[in-house]
Amino acid sequence: MSASLFDLAALDAKVRHADLVREIKHHDKLYHGADAPEISDADYDALRRELDELEAKHPEFITKDSPSQKVGPAPSSGFKKVRHIVPMLSLSNVFSEEELEDFITRIRKFLNLPEDEAIEFVAEPKIDGLSCSLRYEGGKLVQAATRGDGEEGEDITANILTIADIPQTLPPGAPDHVEVRGEIYIGRADFAALNARLAAEEKKVFANPRNAAAGSVRQLDSTITASRPLRFFGYALADNLRFETQKQVRAALKSWGFKLPVIPDEEGMTPFAFYNAVQNLRPSLDYDIDGVVYKLNRIDYQKRLGFVARAPRWAVAHKFPAERAVTKLLKIEIQVGRTGALTPVARLEPITVGGVVVSNATLHNEDEIARKDIREGDMVVIQRAGDVIPQVVEVLADKRTGAEKVFELRNECPACGSLAIREEGEVVRRCTGGLICPAQAVERLKHFVSRLAFDIEGLGAKIIEEFYAEGLVKTPADIFRLEGMVIDPPLQSREGWGDKSVEKLFAAIRQRRTIALHRFIYALGIRQIGEATAKRLAGHYGSWPVFRVAMQDAQRDDLLTIEDVGPSVADDLLGFFAEGHNRNVLNDLESFLVIEDYVRPQNMDSAVSGKTVVFTGTLTRMGRAEAKARAESLGAKVAGSVSAKTDYVVAGENAGSKLKKAAELGVTVVWEDDWLALIGGV
Fold first, then answer.
1. How many CB atoms lie within 10 A of CB 93?
2. I want to staple 146 with a disulfide (CB 3.0 to 4.6 A). Which of 153, 292, 529, 610 is the partner?
3. Tally: H helices and E strands in the chain
């Protein structure tokens, strides 16, 4: 069955990945944007962990849309926006000594370091607060910003000036221009006093110190911020290039008047020993921490390692264990995802775990239910470790009374009644309803307007559901017809709407009539095409007309030259464009849109800018991952196979078939040393 905007034969792993992306983004928005999380940090970590494991098995799923590639949601509309000169990244997580060792091994492999070369880290407690960036010019604090989505944050300068821990001027000797990054927090004793005061004033209290700090900083009235007991720890600089080590950065921050977290004596400690020491220290601290951060000490190594979309390759957070609790599983219900996957969800007797009320838990699929022998009515162990719903870790079989019911997933979709099938080799059961299944259609429309697709402000999940139910929006193009529709009753007259909110919605829709090529490709929801792959496709073809013709002409060989586009991805792309229904949807959309040509970032000083490069064989001066990352940073396109369009084949030891293909096609071959000379060295 071919892939389609509205018909689903998706891979199970892809379905689960899409569900995780959607849920994590929802909780990211609540946590970073509204300071009102629905779940605990441990729950959030569990979903992040599941996402990371899934993407490790299926790297083709890693897209810019994935939370693994993003820091948080876009900043709210209440503050002026600040574009970070250097992206303000989040951190990847590990949860065990084995995962920490894997992280160190990846660094060694990326840098191509010998096994006997020591790698030095610095470590510090991970503060559970609100990340903030402080820009100083001429020694004076001139701007403060939240992290936001990592690229753009909120200007909170007026509020930051009320925090006594933050120096408003730097001492003589400090750089004229420097950007300090750190964490705003509220101490435990101060938090208790703040909540007591709010309760006495009959005002809403905060759930935890992190929420209190974030809510206090993001006040439009800075006098409210000034009344809150906010504090600040410095931990990094946006640009470390003036220093040789991370230890020097830490010493500089301290000398400039910034407070740093308390740490055990780390001299001679292994990272894991430091982790245990901090865990023992945790109860005595007057502020919340949720793990330990390890940073590579050498700044030159940090620069070489760079970062993936969401996080640096040279640092990681080692999180403390997730919290668990026991409760009763009341019922198992089925949710229908965007690709038709039927996902079982446990409805629980509500229980508080680490300060968060938990009432739902993911069960993944029917095999997972059978493996753990999960039954309705069971007493179960719930683990909060992720920003989405928690997980059922195990069943307490010795607590059974005999009244428990074995769950069987029916062969029909609960949303539309269509046959639900489980194809050979897959673990998920899918609805075959396609167009007639409202659950699938709604989820696809949500994807179309999501932040990394069309990003239409004001057209959130609940509004999409409402408009779909009323028949106002059934296809993506209907979104662009909304403003001209006669809607009864008018939107302005509905609860939660008004003239201003309606005009803002229509203005947001009008604004998105012009869209970048990679965003449009991603928004189509083609199976296995995430944002990173969409961007590679956009970069390869350059314009929508060229891309569409190539797909409709089934230019498969050309597709397969693109990095990360394998046979399965190519089949899904060509299958999508082969369907008449999809072509009709595209024709409809094209009548409303201006799809911008892709503009490739150019490094004008680079000898390889705009060139297509293929790597083959074993490189000895740097790891393959570093070589590809370096080439792309210099403006080159890295391809996965050799074609007549290839400019350079970079050959290492034991180069094979790609080297032979280059000779046949007359493509320029450069050996590793020559390549390094061409790009200016490691």
1. 21
2. 153
3. 24, 26
Residues marked as catalytic: 126
Dihedral pair phi/psi, residue 327, rounded to 5°:
-150, 180
Nearest CA among 444, 585, 467, 456 for reference residue 509: 456
- pLDDT tens for 145-186 read 998 878 788 899 999 999 999 999 999 989 999 999 999 999
CA-to-CA distance for 258 and 255, rounded, in angstroms? 7
Q: What are phi and psi of 378, to 5 degrees?
A: -70, 150
Question: Residue 7's pLDDT is what?
Answer: 39
* Each residue's pLDDT tens digit, 339-392: 788 999 999 999 877 556 788 898 988 999 999 999 999 999 988 754 446 889
- Tell me which residue of 393, 403, 395, 390 sits closest to 352, measured CA to CA: 390
Looking at residue 259, its pLDDT comes to 95
Question: Token pair of 601, please?
Answer: 């970032």
> Rounded to the nearest 5°, which phi and psi values hold at 554?
55, 50
Token representation of residue 298: 């050498």
CA gap 4, 433 in Å, rounded: 13
CB 372 within 8 A of CB 396: no
- Measured CA to CA, the distance from residue 566 to residue 624 in angstroms comes to 19
Sign of CA dihedral 438, 441, 443, 449: negative
Number of neighbouring beta carbons within 10 Å of residue 396: 11
Beta strands in 604-647 (DSSP E): 612-616, 637-638
Mean pLDDT of 427-452: 85
Q: Extract the tokens encoding 489.
A: 């009753």
Q: Which phi and psi (to 5°) does residue 375 adopt?
A: -130, 150
CA–CA separation, 180 vs 234, rounded Å?
A: 7
Distance CA(621)–CA(636), nearest Å, equals: 19
Token readout for 132 is: 């903030």
Tally Cβ neighbours within 10 Å of residue 436: 15
Residues 6+ positions from 341 with CB-CB distance below 8 Å: 8, 10, 12, 15, 16, 19, 428, 429, 430
**How big, in percent rounded to 5, are the helix, strand and coil portions of the chain?**
40, 20, 40
Phi-psi region of 434 (alpha: psi -120 to 50; beta: other; left: phi over 0): left
Q: Treating both helix axes as pointing N-terminal to C-terminal, what angle do 188-200 and 209-217 enclose, rounded to 10 degrees?
A: 70
- Report strand pairing: 315-319 vs 93-94: parallel
Two structure tokens written together for 254: 């301290």
Using pLDDT thresholds of 50, 70 and 90, give the confidence band for residue 6.
very low
Partner residues linked to 361 by β-bridges = 346
Residue 133 and residue 88: Cα distance in Å, rounded? 8
HEC readout, 105-149: HHHHHHHCCCCCCCCCEEEEEEECCEEEEEEEECCEEEEEEECCC
Residue 300's pLDDT band, with cuts at 50, 70 and 90, is very high
Q: Are 271 and 123 in contact (CB under 8 A)?
A: yes
Instruction: State the residue for tokens 């402080």.
Output: 134
What distance in Å separates the CA atoms of residue 538 and residue 532, rounded to the nearest whole number?
A: 10
Asked whether 419 and 399 are in contact (CB, 8 A), the reply is: no
For residue 577, which amino acid is it?
A: F
